[in-house]
Amino acid sequence: MTSITQTNPLWKEDKIRNYLPHMTVPEVEVFLECSDMVLIPIGALEQHAAHLPIGTDFINGVELCKLITQERDILVAPVLMAGQSPYHMAFSGSITLSAEVIIKVHMETVESLIKHGFKRFVFMNSHGGNAAITTFLVDQINQKTSAVAVATKLTLPSHLKNMLPNVINEEPTAKLLFLSEALKDADTGKKTSTIEMTKTGVWGELNPNEATLERGFKNVQNNIKACSEFIDRWNELVSIK
Question: Which domain range does residue 88 map to?
Answer without folding.
Answer: 18-202+211-235
